[in-house]
């Protein structure tokens, strides 16, 4: 049976946040989404160790703290580094891709232009992580 995921969506674009919520609703998924508009907000969310997300979806291009800066902090902190993190971005820059995998991401998804393609990608990612054996430490 698929698990209901607690997802931390780190995204500064309101349209992208609405698109994610619309997609989860369209797919009739019961995952919960907590939002953070940048890496600093996300670190504040993660301070509540009793409510860790099962999955982080992270945009790279954000104000205050870039996605890569956030990722470096996340993956170098013992309490957080186990949380699967999937990049969800428009950046097809190979340097970003390699840097993110070097830091320790679980996936790198390019946001497609067509909404139908976006739905398919999000469905695939969430299906995988809801069936994967996730362990909270």
Description:
The chain has helices spanning 14-26, 39-46, 67-75, 94-103, 115-131, and strands at 6-10, 32-36, 55-58, 85-89, 107-110. With 137 residues, it is of the alpha/beta class. It has a single domain (6-131), classed as Rossmann fold, CATH 3.40.50.2300. The chain has a five-stranded parallel β-sheet with strand order 2-1-3-4-5. The longest helix is centred in the last third of the chain and has 17 residues, at 115-131. It is globular and about 35 Å long. The mean pLDDT is 92.
In total, the number of strands is 5
The end-to-end span amounts to 21 Å
Helix fraction, binned, reads 40-55%
CATH-wise, what's the superfamily? Response regulator
Number of helical segments? 5
Low-confidence stretches are: none
CATH architecture: 3-Layer(aba) Sandwich
What is the CATH C level class, in words?
Alpha Beta
Number of individual domains: 1
* H and E string: EHEHEHEHEH
**Helix/sheet category:** alpha/beta
Cα-atom radius of gyration: 14 Å
What topology, given as strand order, has the largest sheet?
A: 2-1-3-4-5
